[in-house]
Amino acid sequence: MLKNIINLEGAQKLSVNEQKSIFGGLPVQPATCRCFCYTSNHKVNAYCYTLCPDGSIPGIEEGSTGNCGYPFPLKPGLE
Predict the structure, then answer these.
(1) Residue 15 phi/psi, 5° resolution?
(2) What element of type H or E holds 39?
(3) In what order do the strands lie in the sheet with 35-39?
(4) Predicted pLDDT of residue 38
(5) How many CA atoms does the CB half-sphere of 39 hold within 13 Å?
(6) Which residue among 16, 40, 63, 67 has the highest number of C-beta atoms inside a 10 angstrom radius?
(7) 59 by DSSP, 3-state: which?
(8) Mean pLDDT by 10-residue block, N- to C-terminus, for the chain (79 residues)?
(9) Which are the contacts of 78, defined by CB distance < 8 A and separation ≥ 6?
């Protein structure tokens, strides 16, 4: 089985940014939470429980209810 996985034709390596966008193992965000990040001066929707691509904490949209904040301990220097 492993040999078949390794030899997949047409498989592509993920970039660092693509790898950061994979949410495996993280808690599911409540439906009442809406967060955003700024990417190249554009406001984009973001998952509330991950950091933005630039390493900042996502902003919480006005009107979001529930526990929407970033729940994990921050790396030193981001506090």
Answers:
(1) -75, 170
(2) strand 35-39
(3) 42-46, 35-39, 59-60
(4) 94
(5) 10
(6) 67
(7) strand
(8) 63 74 64 88 88 89 79 56
(9) 55, 57
